[in-house]
């Protein structure tokens, strides 16, 4: 499981011009699920998303995680994140979990994050064509692996 996280001042996700989720300061996490992923990766990723220290403390150092900063989380499924781009000029998607495996795992991740950060987790719609808007704060972007 991979998550491309971006510290944002705001982010939102729309499907067919309908706003499905939006956050103020916090993290946008684009999540890709691989065939070998399971519950262990879900729980590890939830902990990493909420605890990874990318927010400034009183001294201006990145020492605070999302849960400590009071920020929000926007989780967006993105199978292209785990594409095979090692050769050629076209991505291969055999490295991504099929939707029937990935959707339940993504929903478990969403549930875990909502349990750990009850008032601050938004999402898009799994498998939909989504329009994601964001203002990257920093810019601060990291690739996490669970």
From TrEMBL:
One of its GO terms (molecular function) is D-tyrosyl-tRNA(Tyr) deacylase activity. Keywords: Cytoplasm, Hydrolase, RNA-binding, tRNA-binding. InterPro entries: Daa-tRNA_deacyls_DTD, DTD-like_sf. Transmembrane segments: none annotated. Gene3D superfamilies: D-tyrosyl-tRNA(Tyr) deacylase. GO terms for cellular component: cytoplasm. It is found in: Cytoplasm. A motif (Gly-cisPro motif, important for rejection of L-amino acids) lies at residues 138-139. It is an enzyme of class 3 (hydrolase). Homodimer. A Gly-cisPro motif from one monomer fits into the active site of the other monomer to allow specific chiral rejection of L-amino acids. This is D-aminoacyl-tRNA deacylase. It comes from Novilysobacter ciconiae.
């Amino acid at each position: 499981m991979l998550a491309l996280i971006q510290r944002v001042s705001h982010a939102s996700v729309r499907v067919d011009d309908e706003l499905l989720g939006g956050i103020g300061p916090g993290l946008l996490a684009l999540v890709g699920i691989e065939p070998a992923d399971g519950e262990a990766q879900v729980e590890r990723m939830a902990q990493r998303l909420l605890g990874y220290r990318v927010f400034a403390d009183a001294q201006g150092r990145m020492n605070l995680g999302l849960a400590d900063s009071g920020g929000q989380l926007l989780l967006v499924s993105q199978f292209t994140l785990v594409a095979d781009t090692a050769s050629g000029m076209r991505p291969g998607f055999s490295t991504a979990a099929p939707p029937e495996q990935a959707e339940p795992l993504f929903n478990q991740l969403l549930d875990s994050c909502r349990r750990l950060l009850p008032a601050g987790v938004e999402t898009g719609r799994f498998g939909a064509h989504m329009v994601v808007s964001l203002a990257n704060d920093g810019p601060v972007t990291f690739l996490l692996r669970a």
